[in-house]
Amino acid sequence: MLLEVKNLCVDFKVGKQTLRAVNDVSFSLGERDSLGLVGESGCGKSTTAFALMRLLAKNGRIAGGQVLLNGLDLASAPYDEIRKVRWKDIAIIFQNAMTALNPVQKIGNQLVNALQEHENVSRKEAIERAEYLFERVGIAKSRLMQYPHEFSGGMKQRAVIALALICKPKILIADEPTTALDVVAQRQVIELLAGLQDEFHISIIMISHDISAVAEACSHIAVMYGGEIMEMGNSKDVLIRNNHPYTHALVGSFPSLHKPLSALMQIPGGAPNLADMPVGCPFSPRCPYATDLCREKKPPMRQVRLGKLCKCHYAEELDFNRKEG
Amino acid sequence: MSDMVLDNLSKQYVLKAGFFKQLSGKAGVVSAVDQVSFQMEEGEIVGLVGESGCGKTTLGKMLLKIEDITSGKAYIDGTDIAAVRGRKNILEFRKKVQMIFQDPYDSLDPKFTIREIVAEPLKSLKICQSAEEIHKRVEDTLRLVELTPVELYADRYPHQLSGGQRQRVAIARALVSNPEFIIADEPVSMLDVSLRAGVLNLLQKLNRERGIGVLLITHDLATARFLCNRIVVMYLGRFVEITDPSSLVEDAVHPYTQLLISSAPDLFADTSNRIKVEGEAASAVAPPQGCRFYPRCPYTRDICTREVPQLTEIKPRHFVACHKTSPDFIKAEAAR
Questions:
Q1: Least confident piece of the model among A23-27, A102-106, B106-110, B148-152
Q2: Do the chains contact at A187 and B277, CB–CB below 8 Å?
Q3: Which residues of B touch A43 (CB under 8 A)?
Q4: Does 3.10.129.10 match the CATH number of domain B2-335?
Q5: What 8-state DSSP symbol labels residue B317?
Q6: Cα–Cα distances in angstroms (integers) from residue B313 to residues B75, B184, B326, in the given order
Q7: Domain boundaries, chain B
Q8: Which of A11, A58, A75, A114 ranks highest by number of CB atoms within 10 Å?
Q9: Complex ipTM over 0.85
Q10: DSSP state letters, B205-241
């Protein structure tokens, strides 16, 4: 395994309270794997990604668990080690490409600087590599030495992808790479990521609230709620054959262009409050199937069938199959 | 009678330029909305769909008199919008036409309670005089948008509510003056998925029960298909296709509509023959001559670069602006 995350927990100190934003998250990523972390705002998906790169805000800390990258535990490694790993082994595309680029520096120089920081290459070589990546992501290399404001939204997003790939990372984390874009530009980014994965043999962790975008870009999906992974497995298996009521509700609340026109599913209540989490299953206050057992006892993560993990007391009984309606 | 009629409506913005350039007419012009015509029937929900920068929000703003009309006419409930002048008439107009904005985190005053926010239109539009009347009407409206029990929500502040609840407050504020027409600009795009369905279902209920006409401005075809009776697809300031949502996916004719459908990520889509597209939307400052979509269109012919295709009814309730559908074009294609 390239990357193994074991029982990762992240705490934030807010005033006198300590809030657990990520709770007991485990997953692994092989070479050329792609994993999508999906969930609604505040579910801990971005925090998980930031913890992997040790980019948590000052009031946040990894409270437990391991993040193993080629045997090195990123969760406990000294900061100098982390600096070597960042961008070289794991690169991240931040949410909102519009603000991720330095507005007063030419984009080409930003790419060159990032590469020269990590590798001993001449400026000429660095520019050559930047030009190659620009063409690969679909931007004319003549535009390399332009400023970010001269680019459209879709181009900025692609330039940020080129920037992330400049040091040939093994893992690319993409935080909401399609969210701010129009559908046509979204499609281009999804296809670009798939193509790059083939060419550079990278593994991708994509974070998004848009389950349909993730379903197309990733082979595996983990659905998060209240800081925990609720259901995980092969993309089609998770989204078409849901075992967790939350996954079922989430997929049902998305309007589709191809589904029959029926009323959209509505999840009652609101997102969980981290300061006041239920004792049992975090989804139990909103779950239509919740029983006393769910309210009192946290369900364990377990395998419901080959390649499908689910955290629900009734995962075996609740087998929603969308193909059969 | 129809709720909304657009007749060759256009909006142009003059770009910043020097004084002499403006005088000599050499200043650049952005044609944000270009000669659009449409008739909306009473009690319809119409979806206006397009990419960012296509002019859909500008059109909404013109209908609300936030932006002035450059040329053409727009009527809401038989009233010529451009002719509504003077404070008193504008107040009357605002009672009939209301707007729901995109971002419920920005559009509600954080220092007002929910009750004050919803009561605001009643006061500023001088609809209710007595405090009891305002009180009753606000509570009735909050009940209508399902913020119940009302006592629980009415005296809270916006920051104490979730995104979905805030958007309900915004809807309540739009509804309290008893409007006949609502313009909803991306009402769910800022909300979490699980909360979107609730807001969309509410809009649908209000339309069915009260016959309020809704113009839904969105970039999301799937949302429009779910909620609307008709869908208008807009590209760079022009309407390119008007169709029924039920036949949208199967019968889309305009290459741009087909591109939008094919691009949308969808769990249930057949992904085998996706349309590939290069390039991005052209600029509205110097839009292409002829059909504005031709630089990205896979079917471009000579005529597309010269003549503007007109919106034609190819079958009942289905309008398309594409040369591909004209008899001459089909004949010429057959001869090729």
A1: B148-152
A2: yes
A3: none
A4: no
A5: T
A6: 22, 27, 11
A7: 2-335
A8: A75
A9: no
A10: HHHHHH--EEEEEES-HHHHHHH-SEEEEEETTEEEE
